[in-house]
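Below is how a single chain appears once it has passed through the pipeline. First comes the sequence as given, then the structure the pipeline wrote out for it. We keep one example in the README because the format questions we get most often are answered faster by looking than by reading.
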Amino acid sequence: MRIVVPDDFPSVFQSSAAHHRALKLGDVTVYTERGGDDPTELVRRIGDAEVVINIRSHAPFTEDVFRACPRLRMISVWGTGVDNIDLGAAARHGVVISNIPGVNADAVAEHTFALMLAVARRIPEADRQLRAGTWSKLLLTQLSGKTLGVLGLGDIGQRVAKLGRAFGMRVLAWTLRPDQGRAEALGAQPVGEEELLRSADVVTIHLRLTEETRGFLGKHELGLMKRSAILVNTARAAIIDRQALIDSLRAGAIQGAGLDVFHEEPVPPNDPILTLPNVVLSPHHASTTPEVIEAGLLKAVENIEHFVAGSPRHLVAPPQ
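Resulting structure:
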């Protein structure tokens, strides 16, 4: 079997326990330099592969890519998001897509609260002032007693809801599909999208990026939020309309935002998001912990083992 990792940059797979395990399945080629985000280069790298292990979400698996790679039978995704893969095209070309749901949930939930606290407690601002010799007393936001609005109750959203309860927050939850009692089981109150946006002191996004959720929070939705509210996004940047977010933050229509994901990654130096003082940023690394990396890579290889054995698991279906 020919297995290719086209996008191991920055490298996490090369020489890992998962790499050694994959070598037992066949020939493995790992590309540790960036370039897999270019469709032509991606095809060059995976053209004769039967299985691809997709590490980074910037590699574009499009109709044209699938057409150019007729031997491809499986993509095993390290992570949960599959917005870089045309699932309909994959199905048409007989390519199975699997992911590893839940592996990074604790890490991303913790990072969500780290960003939330950094904005609420104005930690980056206080740090900068203190290092510059200014001993100031900033007015901070207390989370206890506030309302947390969780958009999406997958593995990560559920953990965030639990952490919110532990912080003494009232938790509201909204899901794109019926939540089947998940909210109430977590001690959260299921509400409509607009009620959540109007009521929450902190809104945190844990939705998958699909055609339904692209631009989900636009000018109207952001305009419903309190001026004192904080917005946190550790899901996908495109769920929020970029210009609407920048305008809202510039105008002080919301207190601030904590962002781990961006419309263009790496963020270009001229991106206006970098100039906004009420935003705390991190470079799409919410799940970058040794525990998540090791466990996730091994599970991605396990998914290939199950596929080879004729019992594929964690399959991602194309949208209906």
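The CA atoms of residues 231 and 257 lie 5 Å apart.

See the next section for the split statistics.
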